[in-house]
């Protein structure tokens, strides 16, 4: 099969026979390996040679690791608590529905990238569809979202260090250590060289989750349950939450799938983007199976006494062990989510110049300035804002959802509103309906989730007043 035929076949897979024609420069996104002494041209990075970093060096298995690491983190550890709100059966149904929609959204990222090789991030897609306003909006949203997630990652590392060391020093010191380590690792210039870190981090977080899952199953009762007298799990098949509680739980699950915004950056650095779909299927299957298995087993044994994050559900010793094993995973998550916005700004600053692909002084100064700047902002936000946890929840509901649902529905409509063969049959009408459904449902979840998060922030602040800035208090006690 010719290269053009393969490209055309892949484009058809994205929208049941209705995708725009592939542009003649699509080969720019399909060629990625550097042969010694030769130069490869890329529509985003320009001429890539041995004189600089190889931005097109991520294999399909490495892509799986990067994809899964943008999604599996502390988010999975909140799923048992979400089941306690929604109930076991509704919780599983919500996971399956969100998995289906986000899988389609993630797939559309791959199709759109092949059709439009110059697209590097979601702001490029926003600019094509909505003009300058769309580019600016999605560019700011992309950076802000990942910076807030990076701040959350730093706090996650501080919780882990506090747990392992039994609050060995001031929490503010642990957050600073997390920021320094995150800066050092996120300054690795290409995702191809970060993939080995992703595998280590993914193995660590999955191992810790499996340990706590086994522990709650073999223990007599969870750590938070009454330790004397008979006890039985009070898990609920169907919950009875208020609207605010339900929408907040749904938003939390969406947040656990909100790696979509990073997938443009990941496919842009793949050696062969035609293998993106294979990586996506493996990723989404693994993530969904993990979420359902962990959520079901931990909630079944713990009931309403499940901790959030769930690593604290099996007692102090297990919490120390699992946080110690999870620490590399938390560090890799922080590394990756610092790298993404830094690389985005770096490409925007040096795009179209030789300094992007050559190791010049301007290249190095710009790169370290981007990674250091993003790290400092994330550190300040994580340390200085009293209700940071609520702020991250708000960002996930508002920014995570609005970048994982609505744009992808719009992307299909942008490329397929006028069918290539001019015929609008039932498949075309079905895809139009589905795209509009994704846009409308995403908008509802954005508004509802934002409302639920704001109510949660207000309630939390009224109860405790939030935490103090640069606090030394042990932040592992609540988990």
TrEMBL record:
GO cellular component: membrane
Main localization, broad class: membrane
Membrane-topology descriptor: Multi-pass membrane protein
Transmembrane segments: 58-79, 91-115, 136-159, 165-185, 197-218, 246-267, 279-301, 321-342, 363-385, 391-414, 426-447
Gene Ontology MF annotations: L-amino acid transmembrane transporter activity
Keywords from the UniProt entry: Membrane, Transmembrane, Transmembrane helix
Any matching Pfam family: Aa_trans
Protein name: Amino acid transporter transmembrane domain-containing protein
Species this chain originates from: Xylaria multiplex
């Amino acid at each position: 099969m010719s290269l053009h035929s393969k490209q055309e076949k892949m484009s058809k897979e994205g929208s049941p026979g209705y995708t725009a024609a592939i542009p003649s420069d699509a080969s720019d996104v399909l060629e990625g390996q550097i042969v010694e002494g030769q130069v490869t041209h890329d529509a985003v990075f320009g001429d890539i040679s041995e004189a600089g970093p190889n931005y097109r060096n991520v294999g399909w298995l490495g892509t799986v690791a990067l994809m899964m690491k943008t999604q599996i983190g502390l988010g999975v550890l909140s799923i048992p608590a979400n089941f306690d709100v929604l109930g076991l059966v509704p919780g599983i149904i919500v996971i399956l529905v969100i998995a289906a929609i986000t899988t389609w959204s993630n797939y559309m990222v791959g199709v759109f990238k092949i059709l439009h090789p110059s697209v590097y991030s979601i702001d490029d897609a926003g600019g094509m569809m909505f003009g300058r306003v769309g580019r600016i909006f999605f560019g700011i949203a992309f950076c802000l979202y990942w910076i807030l997630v990076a701040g959350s990652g730093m706090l996650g590392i501080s919780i882990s260090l506090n747990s392992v060391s039994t609050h060995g020093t001031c929490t503010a010191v642990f957050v600073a250590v997390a920021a320094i380590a995150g800066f050092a690792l996120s300054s690795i210039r290409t995702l191809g060289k970060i993939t080995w870190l992703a595998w280590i981090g993914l193995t660590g977080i999955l191992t810790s989750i499996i340990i706590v899952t086994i522990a709650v199953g073999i223990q007599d009762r969870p750590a938070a349950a009454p330790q004397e007298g008979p006890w039985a799990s009070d898990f609920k098949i169907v919950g009875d939450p208020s609207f605010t509680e339900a929408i907040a739980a749904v938003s939390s699950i969406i947040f656990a799938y909100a790696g979509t915004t990073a997938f443009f950056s990941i496919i842009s650095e793949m050696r062969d983007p035609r293998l993106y779909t294979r990586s996506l299927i493996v990723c989404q299957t693994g993530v969904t199976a993990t979420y359902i298995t962990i959520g079901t087993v931990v909630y079944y044994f713990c009931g309403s006494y499940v901790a959030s994050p769930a690593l604290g559900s099996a007692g102090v010793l297990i919490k120390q062990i699992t946080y110690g094993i999870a620490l590399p995973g938390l560090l890799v998550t922080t590394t990756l989510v610092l790298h993404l916005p830094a690389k985005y700004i770096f490409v925007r600053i040096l795009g179209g110049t030789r300094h992007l692909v050559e190791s010049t002084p301007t290249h190095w100064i710009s790169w370290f300035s981007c990674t250091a700047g993003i790290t400092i902002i994330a550190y300040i936000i994580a340390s200085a804002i009293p209700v940071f946890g609520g702020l991250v929840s708000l960002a996930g509901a508002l920014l995570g959802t609005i970048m994982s649902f609505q744009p992808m529905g719009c992307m299909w409509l942008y490329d397929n509103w006028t069918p290539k063969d001019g015929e609008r049959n039932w498949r075309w009408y079905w895809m139009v309906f589905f795209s509009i459904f994704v846009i409308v449902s995403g908008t509802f979840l954005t508004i509802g989730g934002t409302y639920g998060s704001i109510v949660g922030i207000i309630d939390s602040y009224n109860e405790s007043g939030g935490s103090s800035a640069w606090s030394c208090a042990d932040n592992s006690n609540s988990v």
